[in-house]
Amino acid sequence: HVRRKDFVLLNYSSTDEYLFTAIDYYIKRYSNAYFIVASDDKSYCKNLFHNRSNIFVTPQSFSMSDDLITLSLCEHSIITGGTFGWWTGYLANGQVIHDKVYPSGCERREYYYPPWFLIDGNVRAHKNSKNIL
Known about the structure:
Keywords: Glycoprotein, Glycosyltransferase, Golgi apparatus, Signal-anchor, Transferase, Transmembrane. Its EC number is 2.4.1.-. It is a single-pass type II membrane protein. GO terms for molecular function: galactoside 2-alpha-L-fucosyltransferase activity. The structure is a single chain. The chain is of the alpha/beta class. 38% of the residues lie in helices and 12% in strands. The protein has helices at 5-10, 16-29, 42-48, 64-72, 83-92, 108-111; strands spanning 35-37, 55-57, 77-79, 96-99, 117-119. Helix 4 (64-72) runs parallel beside helix 5. The longest helix has 14 residues, at 16-29.
């Protein structure tokens, strides 16, 4: 899940670099990985991932409920900030990669579900780590 619209204005949005690093992490672990992207800014995501044949953006006609159901059926998740992404990762019940730089005022143990992996949104380190924290 890629949350953008209000987060871009608040400067909370995850970077494109974070998204591509998380995608590359899964591709290294699962060579035949395919990705389904749901977002509040599907046009942005279609443009961002237009040259990746293994990445599909949910249709504009999908409601938030459709997106939630679709992402909850995935084996693993990459999420950005917000409760919608949190719930998609939780319901999917696989590995979850979350942007480490969000949220700024929370205690990590209060926000992140324990088995989740965190990647620094600025991607300064941890690219090949097995357990990213």
